């Protein structure tokens, strides 16, 4: 089964291009252009990994991360930003983000992190099944 990825980013060109590139790598990818849209997408259908932009106008990535961790704790979140903001990185990691990557991110690096995060997500799901 392909890893399920939800890309959440307000930059349409980045979203379309990254989704296409990840699909070519065998991932099942859905796209959301805002934090609210991303949360609605998770309500409709879960994902193994959310690749989440930090800087968005409606809800920033930290607000979205907080909601994901409250409502969908098994979902792993990779945070992306175009700004070298270490405070945001530290805050996101403390709130449970799987990792934090700088834009522009190399596709091979992102794919590796998605695979690691997806593996953790599946293991969390298996543990819940044993409870």
From TrEMBL:
Family annotation (Pfam families): Response_reg (PF00072)
Keywords: DNA-binding, Phosphoprotein, Two-component regulatory system
Domain Response regulatory intervals: 4-118
Gene Ontology annotations for the cellular component aspect, listed alphabetically: cytosol; protein-DNA complex
GO BP terms, alphabetized: regulation of DNA-templated transcription
4-aspartylphosphate, modified sites: 53
GO molecular function: phosphorelay response regulator activity; transcription cis-regulatory region binding
Protein name: Response regulator receiver domain-containing protein
């Amino acid at each position: 089964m392909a890893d399920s990825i939800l890309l959440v980013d307000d930059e349409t060109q980045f979203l379309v291009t990254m989704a296409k590139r990840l699909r070519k790598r065998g991932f099942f990818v859905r796209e959301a252009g805002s934090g609210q849209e991303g949360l609605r997408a998770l309500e409709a259908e879960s994902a193994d990994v959310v690749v989440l932009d930090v800087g968005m106008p409606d809800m920033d990535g930290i607000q979205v991360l907080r909601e994901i961790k409250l409502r969908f704790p098994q979902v792993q979140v990779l945070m992306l930003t175009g700004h070298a903001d270490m405070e945001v990185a530290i805050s996101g990691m403390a709130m449970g983000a799987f990792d934090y990557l700088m834009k522009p991110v190399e596709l091979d690096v992102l794919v590796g992190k998605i695979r690691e995060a997806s593996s953790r997500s599946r293991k969390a799901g298996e543990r819940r099944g044993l409870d």
